[in-house]
Write a structure and sequence with these properties.
Layout lengths: L2 H7 L2 H12 L9 H16 L14 H23 L7 H23 L14 H7 L5 H21 L9
Length: 171
């Protein structure tokens, strides 16, 4: 599934649609409350991890921090329930661990940057996939793509660090 299609599936509109069909007692959707709730959580965490404009930048009082924390808690609770009660998890073990690492890392990085004087954090800058973008554009020369990726990662790291006042980074 590509990102565009996933965004359509895990959207606020889908969650609202599920709730409407539940209220209308549509066959097969009477008990879809948890699915609608999960869909909305995925939508919200995706938005929190993709803040790109300074006017929407994450500050210490931004709701995005709580959204990330809540999704991380849900990942942890889901795994704990799987281990203790044998419930089915919504993703593979590797995906669950990757979600945990990503969410905890972004949460910690936001906290670190804000504590070092950053006025705001743009999480969308942390999640750009330059290599994937170059492949989408048809740049198939892997060596030059990797070299370009290395340069871009260095530039992005510098850009992220530059958003924090008096914050030093060494690459």
């Amino acid at each position: 599934m590509n990102v565009r299609l996933a965004l359509q599936l895990f959207s606020r509109s889908t969650a609202i649609g599920l709730k409407v069909y539940q209220r209308l007692k549509e066959p097969g959707l009477q008990d879809c409350h948890k699915t609608a709730e999960f869909t909305l959580m995925v939508n919200n965490v995706f938005d929190a991890l993709n803040v790109k404009l300074p006017q929407f930048g994450i500050t210490s009082s931004s709701k995005e921090i709580e959204v990330i924390k809540e999704f991380l808690d849900a990942v942890n609770e889901t795994e704990e329930s799987h281990v203790t009660r044998g419930t089915v998890i919504f993703a593979s073990q590797v995906t669950m661990e990757s979600l945990r690492v990503t969410l905890a890392s972004v949460r910690d990085l936001i906290g670190d940057l804000l504590s070092k004087g950053a006025r705001f954090v743009l999480t969308g800058k942390m999640n750009q996939d330059q290599f994937g973008d170059s492949m989408k554009r048809g740049e198939k020369d892997r060596l030059s793509s990797y070299e370009s990726l290395q340069e871009t990662v260095g530039a992005k790291l510098s850009e992220i660090c530059a958003t924090a006042q008096d914050y030093t980074c060494s690459a």
